[in-house]
Amino acid sequence: MRILVTGGAGFIGSALVRHLVLERDAEVLVVDKLTYAGDRRSLRDCEGRPGFGFLQADICDRARMDAAFAEFRPEAVMHLAAESHVDRSIAGAAPFIETNIHGTFTLLEAARGYHATLDAAAKQAFRFLHVSTDEVFGSLGPTGAFCETTPYDPRSPYSASKAASDHLARAWRETYGLPTLVTNCSNNYGPYHFPEKLIPLIILNALDGKELPVYGDGSNIRDWLFVEDHARALVAAVERGVPGETYCIGGRSERRNLEVVQVICDLLDQRLPAARPRREQIRFVTDRPGHDQRYAIDCGKVERELGWRQQESFESGIARTIDWYLANDWWWQPLRQQRYAGERLGLIPAL
Ligand code: NAD
After folding, report:
1. Which residue ranges does the record assign to the NAD(P)-binding domain (predicted)?
2. H or E element at residue 237
3. CATH number of the domain where residue 97 is located
4. Rounded mean pLDDT of 245-274?
5. Range of 24's domain?
């Protein structure tokens, strides 16, 4: 398959592209602006492989998107490019509105223009997969789980911008017949995760002997999915999903934030014993405004209809993730140094 992947230099995008290029022999064109969150080094295993191409471009740039479609002639689009960090969206929402809403609109319009040029068979086979988050559904109480029919209730600038883009993707199918599908996935973790996100931040601060910041009392619950399992689910959605449908993807691995931090401390203590147990580095910090209490996903539809199963349990996935960070400081050291420089300049909210 010939697939145009937006945001392919980011965390999930690069896992997807490695899977497509290295395990599925797909032809892939990555379209990525290379914001602070994009890193071409995450794709170094794909560089030079037949069928792998990279275009540094902004999805808001209609002329460049039109040219990318016309030259690459994709059979599918997997749209992951986004501003993705909730804390940054609270500090400044403008890039979230621009990329997540205007960028998705621009890409849909470019895809629609290209789709109209295809012959009938290619038109029918074409897929536009819009990759989204479970955060569009808001916050859950102690029981229940999000599913495909859960009403939208976004509560942060990030989730509101993603909700808007989900609606655009669905509207372009209903209105213009573009074969779009939407996936909403729970929190991902794994290798190449940008060091500002909870799990890598905790691993790296724990290694450095720094404080381990936990929002509020650490009772917020997330449903964790190993990133390579998400990548496999996205490919299943493009290959076997039905246009117009939504698929909720999750890990059936609900954990309180504090539990996640404690597991990381304990696994690091086993691998690299420190003078004091690393749990002593945990510090509770002022909660994020509008912090959603609990997310959980019922992924029954994607299991039944797409035949997808996650392969990694939380226990094995978190151990693999820790081992990857221990073995790959070439990747995270430069990003972490930039982060601290950004914090000192007041460009990045300190955590
Ligand atoms: P990320 O921040 O790691 O990567 C985003 C990528 O998009 C980066 O490579 C960045 O350079 C690129 N990008 C940003 N703005 C762009 C623009 N205007 N034009 C082109 N490229 C641009 O994000 P991620 O965690 O890999 O998430 C990928 C997608 O999956 C997002 O749409 C996100 O909403 C969704 N998602 C993420 C999670 C999660 O846990 N991380 C869970 C569910 C869904």
Report:
1. 4-320
2. helix 227-240
3. 3.40.50.720
4. 97
5. 2-190+225-252+294-313
